[in-house]
Amino acid sequence: MDPNSLSKLSCVQIAFSALKNHHILAVPGIACCPACSSTQIDIVSECPECRHDARGYVMCCHQDMRQAEEEGTLMLSFGVFSDTLSDSTLGPSAMDAHHDNAGHVPQQHQDHDHAHSERDVHSLGGDEEEEEEDPVYAAACKEVGLAVVEVFQREGLTVEWDGEATSRIAVKSIPQGPDRLMFKLDPEQAEWVDKISQNRLINGMPSEARCSHTCGSGVRPCPHGVCMDFEEDPECACCH
User: CA 123, 126, 128: angle at the middle one, nearest 5?
Assistant: First the structure.
C-alpha cells in the first residue's frame, strides 16, 4: 500500500477515535448490514451504561466498508439517543427547538433500513411517504452530523453532507482495494462492543440467530446474531 493511502486510512481511524471527545459513539463495522446496524443501535438506546455519556452515534456496516473499498466513498449513518434530549446535552439550535416544542416526544433514531446511494449523500427516507419530522430530534441530530463532518475534515478528509438529519455523510477518496478498511478498535470502543454483545443476550436475543435474508445457497446463520425478520436483501453481507 502506498504511503498516501496509508495516511488517508490513518486519518479515518483517527477521526473515528476523536469523536468520543464530542460524546459521540463511533464504531466502524458495527454489523454486517444496515438492518443489523439499526438493531444494534436499538439495543444501545435501551442500555445507557453501554454508551457511557454519549449523546449520539455514528456508524457504518460491513456493506458500507465493502462499498468504500470498491468505489472510494464511505457512507456514515448517525443519530442521537432520545433520552439525552434534555437541556443539559442539547446544543444551541436543539435547545431552541426543545423549548419551542416542550412535551413533544422525539422519534428515537433515523431509519437506517433503507438502501443508500452508492456514490452520493442520499436521504434515507426513500420514496415512502415522509413522517412529520420532530424539530428537537432533527436539531440535535444535525449537531451530531456537524460534529462528525468537522472532525473528519480536521483530519484532511473530503466530506460531503447536505446538512439534513435524514441524510448520510459521505467520506470521499477512500483508498480502494480489498481489505483496506480494517479498523482497529481502541480499548474504549472494544469495551463498548463487548457490552453490546452481553446486553443482546440479556434482552433475550439469541447468540446465534438465523438470517432471514436469502441468497443463492439459501438462509445462513448471521455471524452477529441479530439478523432477524428483515426483508429479503440479496446484498446482505452475512449471506455471502
Answer: 135
Domain ranges, residue 50 = 3-205
DSSP for residue 186: P
Q: Does some domain include residue 230? A: no
φ and ψ at 123, to 5 degrees? -65, 140
Query: Is 33 in contact with 202 (CB distance < 8 Å)?
Result: no
Is 224 part of a structural domain of the chain? no
Q: What is the pLDDT of residue 27?
A: 74
pLDDT digits over 12-32, tens only? 888 988 898 899 988 777 777
Provide the number of structural domains found in the chain.
1
Domain assignment present for 211: no
CA atoms within 13 Å, Cβ hemisphere of 63:
22
Tell me, yes or no, whether 193 lies in a domain. Answer: yes
